[in-house]
Structure to design on (106 residues):
């Protein structure tokens, strides 16, 4: 039987922590929902060229804990990988921000 490659936490980000969100643990869900609504986009197979941008996430204690759990059970999991990607506003997202978040001053 093939060993599973798990993806325990899609859209892991420090955005909520950096922005001081009230519920930073929900940021992965927020990102997924904003993508589903067409306000944000995560381009497949694209990531930042500045590798150091990912260091805070790769070195985060929660990521290290997950990696240790996977590596401690090689008979169960086939490996651990941090998928590097980035999120961006869509044109629709920019229009939404201009209309609702940063409306023109009257």
């Amino acid at each position: 039987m093939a060993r599973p490659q798990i993806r325990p936490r899609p859209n892991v980000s420090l955005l909520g922590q950096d922005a001081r969100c009230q519920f930073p643990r929900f940021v992965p869900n927020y990102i997924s929902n904003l993508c589903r609504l067409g306000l944000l986009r995560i381009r497949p197979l694209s990531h930042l060229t500045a590798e150091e941008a990912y260091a805070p996430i790769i070195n985060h204690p929660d990521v290290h804990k997950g990696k240790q759990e996977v590596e401690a059970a090689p008979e169960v999991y086939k490996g651990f990988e941090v998928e590097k990607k980035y999120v961006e506003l869509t044109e629709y997202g920019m229009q939404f921000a201009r209309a609702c978040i940063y409306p023109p001053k009257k």
The chain is about 40% helix and 5% strand. The longest strand covers residues 40-41.
